[in-house]
Amino acid sequence: MKFFIDTANLDQIREANDLGILDGVTTNPSLMAKEGITGEAAIMKHYETICSIVNGDISAEVVSVKFDDIIAEGKKLAAIHPNIVVKVPMIKDGVKAIKWFTDNGIPTNCTLCFSAGQAILAAKAGARYISPFIGRIDDSGWEGVQLIEQIVNIYAIQGYETQVLAASIRNSNHIIQCAEVGAHVITSPLEPILGLLTMVLPPTVHCASLPDKLYWLLKPVPNISHHSLVV
Ligand code: G3P
C or N terminus of the chain, fewer CB within 10 Å? Predict the structure, then answer.
């Protein structure tokens, strides 16, 4: 499983790169704005700097939503560096643009994926990566990692070459779960990546110890009424 860092913060990109485990970077306009990078010239320069730090795929996102505009913007981004992957939203014109970029030798990362159907369309259009947003799916009450597993299985059955890039990672356990279900790539902020260094117990061990904890919680203690212990 490849590790990308999901940030526009140069110090964090350098720190992850220095660890020796970094395979690429993803960014988006909000992450750029968070670092105070605004305006086309500054954004292009920032992508150039990121490409000079990390030797791997660097996703650069278009903000346009109409086919012609996405193509024009994507061409400019792709011209920054050979490692740029144009990040295109999962919308109708986005799918058409991904197909155009594929036919013209420009790699793409299809972002804002929330379903297996969208992932199939992205693969058919030839995207290099599909980015399902697992944290946001969790936020809506579903299991984001289950979608990763479903797409990984569909791609394997169909022989699609598009790689499943789990995005919107919120914690270290997301990274482990993505590895378990066969995600090809995760893109994560620095903190969940560093969290892997100190996360000592897998969640299954916590669950296994639960009956013991419940036993001690519910065990009658001298001088305390049993009722007061029942929650
Ligand atoms: O990779 C997508 C990411 O930047 C969005 O993450 O945490 O805002 O859902 P989040």
Answer: C
